[in-house]
């Protein structure tokens, strides 16, 4: 079964200087359980595509089917339901609640997705955050917040993970450890993964690679 089917997708932004195309006629599919790396230079549309894939933005033309559902039939509430329970989103500005500790954030995400609390501390530890579960997001570094956002997504056990530069603010050693956890978890859970990255070694770990600069 296909987790994502994108057909002839077009997207442009309206600016003061006129319409600026981001992509024109993008077509690709990702099988359930597969992984796709989006690469391309800054401004090539990686974040825009991830936003479209989770319903936070819309295309100008073309078709999108996600987890078997034609996107054209989904309203805002359907998208919100999907993001709560089936699509885990890890974006550059991590969506941690500032008033909750890291551990509470992970627990809340699991609750909202209808998953049992499970071994939250295990997730934090496996992502190198041991001892930080009782801290608030503003008491940890950007890279630690990014890893906590990943732990939240693991805790919700989604069918699809969309990750924008999931290792972007990490040093090489930590990035490699976090990527290992991400792919181990993806294989174990059977979920589909789409990640945007400038790191070609991370892209090489995915089954498929879409370079938005070339459309290939
Ligand atoms: N709201 C907006 N209004 C106008 N143009 C926008 C808007 N959002 C993004 N863009 C433009 O669309 C293009 C694609 O942006 P996008 O953020 O998707 O690129 P990216 O490949 O994710 O970049 P990066 O690697 O720097 O994160 C860029 O030229 C950007 O300036």
UniProtKB/TrEMBL annotation:
One of its GO terms (cellular component) is plasma membrane. One of its GO terms (molecular function) is ATP hydrolysis activity. This is Putative ABC transport system ATP-binding protein. Coiled coil: none annotated. It comes from the Bacteria. Gene3D superfamilies: P-loop containing nucleotide triphosphate hydrolases. Keywords: ATP-binding, Nucleotide-binding. The lineage of its organism: Bacteria, Pseudomonadati, Pseudomonadota, Gammaproteobacteria, Pseudomonadales. Pfam families: ABC_tran. The keyword Membrane does not apply. InterPro entries: AAA+_ATPase, ABC_transporter-like_ATP-bd, ABC_transporter-like_CS, ABC_transpr_LolD-like, P-loop_NTPase. Transmembrane segments: none annotated. The keyword ATP-binding applies. It comes from Marinobacter segnicrescens. Residues 4-216 form the ABC transporter domain.
